[in-house]
Design a protein that fits this description.
Order of helices and strands: HEHEHEHHHEHHHHEHEE
Structural class: alpha/beta
Number of helices: 11
Distance between the termini: 55 Å
Mean pLDDT: 92
Shape: globular
CATH class of the domain at 27-139 and 205-280: Alpha Beta
Largest sheet: 7 strands, mixed
Radius of gyration: 22 Å
Length: about 290
């Protein structure tokens, strides 16, 4: 009998060795891959001028943390908090202002603004924080049609736009460095297809987002900006353009990545942000 009990216990112990004791929906790391906490992230975010929250667009943890951080920052900053996002094109700003001011119904807002397919689940909660608390929400991205023009015809084609259209784009021609990792990789991954116009069209997005962030930020304010992680990873892209205009800005970059095992951060992701959200690759997506 004792042998049977001992064997059963041994079998049970062996089975547990094949099980993970923790299944974390996310783990926060600092830039060097050391585990950190949300409290530490919040403390640093509260001291920043600009927060670039780099998300994985279909990742529910990123969107949840965006909402939590934004609400916590509002509780501290109140009217000194400004929201903005890549997901809204600059020429939709008037409609956004009208909606936030209660002059536009939600139905009309949805009909008029070029909303992403995951707006209702992922970005509406952020927009509602702005609406309820009477905060600015800035549409920072270049209208897609103009980025497509740069890609297909080169940036010189923007000269033909009328003066009203040019208001929705960063002053051009923009400063551009094709040797930056963010643009060099786009060029190389495309096998040279599209030439420099492809990464330059991406640069126009980054420059325009930086332009509208700075137009709406002032000293003493905190601007939290939601964008795809590739628009702020490694302190390039948007931050590079921000620092061209104001090198003294305190910019905090939050990045995100997915791994099969998210308990230890892959070294290749080190330095992608000041804080890095690591989620399991098996995590359910918010959209396909």
């Amino acid at each position: 009998m004792k042998k049977i009990v001992a064997l059963a216990l041994l079998t049970l112990c062996m089975s547990f060795t094949f099980l993970k004791t923790e299944k974390n929906a996310y783990v926060l790391f600092d830039s060097k891959g050391k585990k950190t906490t949300y409290n530490q992230l919040f403390e640093e975010a509260a001291k920043a001028d600009i927060i670039l929250f780099g998300e994985l667009h279909d990742n529910p943890i990123c969107h949840w943390l965006q909402r939590e951080l934004t609400q916590d920052l509002y509780n501290t900053k109140k009217e000194n908090l400004i929201l903005g996002a890549e997901m809204f094109e600059a020429d939709d700003q008037i409609a956004i202002n009208e909606y936030l001011g209660g002059r536009l119904s939600e139905k009309t807002f949805k009909d008029e603004v070029k909303l992403w397919t995951n707006y209702a689940t992922d970005y509406k909660p952020l927009m509602e924080i702005a609406k309820i608390n009477k905060l600015k929400f800035i549409a920072t991205n270049i209208p897609r049609r103009y980025a497509n023009m740069v890609y297909s015809r080169g940036e010189s084609c923007l000269d033909s736009l009328d003066s009203d259209a040019k208001k929705w784009i960063a002053p051009f021609p923009i400063k551009y460095d094709g040797n930056l990792k963010c643009y060099k990789e786009i060029f190389e991954n495309a096998g040279g297809h599209g030439g420099e116009n492809l990464p330059k069209s991406q640069a126009y997005k980054d420059a325009t987002m930086a332009n509208f962030i700075l137009k709406n930020w002032s000293k003493g304010k905190t601007f939290i900006h939601y964008n795809g992680a590739y628009h702020s990873n490694y302190h390039q892209s948007i931050e590079w353009y921000l620092k061209q205009q104001n090198p003294n800005l305190k910019v905090l970059v939050i990045s995100a990545t997915e791994q099969e095992d998210n308990s230890i951060l892959d070294k290749e992701t080190f330095d992608s942000g000041d804080f890095i959200i690591c989620t399991p690759s098996s995590l359910t997506k918010t959209y396909k």
